[in-house]
Amino acid sequence: MKALLIGECRDGKLLEYSYELFGFASQQGAESAMVLIGTEAALPSYGGTVYLADAGKYGEYDPDLHKRLVQAAVEREKPDYVVFLHTSYGWDLAPRVAALLKAPQVSEVVALAEGGFERPCCSQKMRQVVKPVGTPVVLTLQGGAFPALVPGGTPQRQALEAEGEGRTEFLGYEAAVRKGVDLTRAEIIVSAGRGVGKRENLPVIAELAKVLGGEVGASRPVVDSGWMEAGAQVGVTGQTVSPKLYVACGISGAIQHLAGMKKSGFIVAINKDKDAPIGEVADVLVVADVMQFVPALTAKLAK
Amino acid sequence: MKILVCVKQVPDMESRFRPDAAGVWYAETDLAFRVNEYDEYAIEQAVLLKEQLGGEPEITLLSVGPDRVVEAVKKGLAMGADRAVHVRDEAAHFKDPFQIASIIAAYAKGEGFDLIFTGMQSLDRGSSQVGVAVAEALGYSCVTTVVAFEYADGTVTVKRELEGGVKGTVRMKTPALITCQLGLNQPRYPTLPNIMKAKKKEVNVIPVEQLLQQEARLVLVKFSAPAKKGGGVILEGEVADQVDRLIGILKDKTAVLR
After folding, report:
1. Could you report the predicted ipTM of this complex, rounded to two decimals?
2. Domains of chain A
3. Number of other residues whose CB lies within 10 A of the CB of residue A173
4. A125 chain-B contacts, CB cut-off 8 A
5. Which chain B residues contact residue A176 at CB under 8 A?
């Protein structure tokens, strides 16, 4: 079995989570080779074959060219799996590669199961197993599902080229907005999610944070709705936090949010939905309406 | 200008999901359906562009699924789309993302859409494949996970959302397909007069057999709840009792209560 792993670079550096691809290959006992559109400085610590295409020539985001580069490597390696991470790069490029290869794609794989692949569905509340028909199989892996592995060694480099021009023009990166409190240093965070109901209810969350001596965070929908500043957002596209206590109020627990807070020391979730995915990481799940439970908790703690 | 917006109807995610008789997808009994949240941003962006261009663009909505999906396109029509196509398919949930994309592309081919908006994923299946696969089938430029959109003179400039809150700016010519991320805009609530107007708008029904030309590349094997990791305490019952029990646990297990 052979896996062609598609690494990721940003600003000329290898993104650390690319090592999760080696973790996957190792877990499957698969031979591997990597494709990297990057620079020499970005080569992984790995003794296998790396097809290195020059990011100076092909850009870090030029999917029309990147898909052809991956195709060229597929033709040489003839892999069983073409493996991406389920990231902004992977979910953008993988379906294009699948279309080019006329190959099945399974997105956001968390495990192999029953002769197929297990993946989340229904906003992470449920799991489905699907079986691909045909080879190679294009996969995107859920972040964190396969532990990172640094194989070590010096790669055997192979040049990788593709013809033609891309139809999109990449104009550059824009740094993240960082305003407000640095939640990464907070020892206690009380975060508000959609279950808070409306903006007018937010003071209830702030009062609990105050009585606990903590800071206020937010899940993405609360920021998207304009109820709170983007700087308060916890999750993949916000801040990654690990306080001693994290209180998730009305947060269902999208994978992007969980990735940003699951390393907290102790997690309390308050949610009406007993099956909400936040329950997966919570030490205590209080099944209740936020607007009934939180004020009662605050009142008792304030005594 | 012609704009297409792809709309999926999905269950409310607070629902309790149970496997269907075959055990491969959810049973629809007792589920309430609504417009896929990501697609609401797609509809809104199309309507904003129509407004920007003085009402000239024609917005077509397309939804694949059983008759219930007409409710979803009606909402989009009330938000400001002009017409809708319902690709009637009682078994849409058995089609894989590639087949759904092929169905959409088979319709869109020859229609000459300048822009296609889709959500970046659906809340129920969440493959993030369909939009990109439609673009690939049509030979359109495509950018995913868009959180800012601008259009001027046949050129689209977007920001895509990357990890860590970083954004990447990308420019392309039409025809193009954009997959919309949460937060791209503020989807409007349909007003009552617009809901009434939407009732008179055209919904063209096409049987899926006319558009489906591809075999599935994925077979559904199983649908189930994730294995519980266990360890977590679940507190149910009266609020006052829950409060006392939680405070007890926090005193016992953490050092945060002084």
Report:
1. 0.94
2. 2-159 (3.40.50.620), 183-302 (3.40.50.1220)
3. 16
4. 13, 17, 225-226
5. 164-166
